[in-house]
Amino acid sequence: MKIIKLFNYLLLCLTVASLPISxxxxxxxxxxxxxxxxxxxxxxxxxxxxxVIPISLIILGVSLKKKSDYFYKINFAVGIISLFxxxxxxxxxxxxxxxxxxxxxxxxxEETTGVELPDDIKVASVEFESYxxxxxxxxxxxxxxxxxxxxxxxxxxxxxxxDSMYRALPISIQAQAKNFDYFVSYNKTINQFSSYVSDEFSxxxxxxxxxxxxxxxWEN
Length: 220
Description:
Blueprint: H1 2-29, H2 32-35, H3 37-42, H4 46-49, H5 52-66, H6 71-90, H7 92-95, E1 99-100, H8 105-113, E2 121-127, E3 132-138, H9 141-153, H10 163-168, H11 171-174, E4 182-187, E5 192-193, E6 203-209, E7 214-219
Antiparallel strand pairs: 1-2, 2-3, 3-7, 4-5, 4-6, 6-7
Helix pairs in contact: 1-5, 1-6, 5-6
């Protein structure tokens, strides 16, 4: 009986830890430092795999109940709550219908602006009410270096973010703006690059972070 109680205690601890551990794992493999919460959401289904832990705790609780052990109530409470949370958070991947992870979403931006992005990329594109944001990770170092070389040879990209470009960006990107190295803005209405952004026109704004090998594209 002592062995069962010890096993139950360990399983109880694992159940309590299953939510933060699975969430941290989703953050890691989803590269949340690049894609933010949308990287975590991409792999949120992984949390469902941890549901076997609270299910095991509940099953053990049934066994303890038959032995009239008061621990079964704790097993049921912790197991059911943990299982519910793992299923809810694990379902986020299927709830966020405004998020796309298809690399083809950048094709339109490339065709519109004429800016060629590297081929080997990982993408998370989010559609909001009045604008879209695409988070891109550059996977290949050689392609990244060629991309930077093209940027430096271009007169369209700048190493500073203009005030009007900064104001056009959502707060979530403004907070990170200082971490980026190159910026470009394309006026879709008149089909030309412009560092000045006005509310009267539609734009594509790109930001490149060399150190993190990431690009953020904002488009209205």
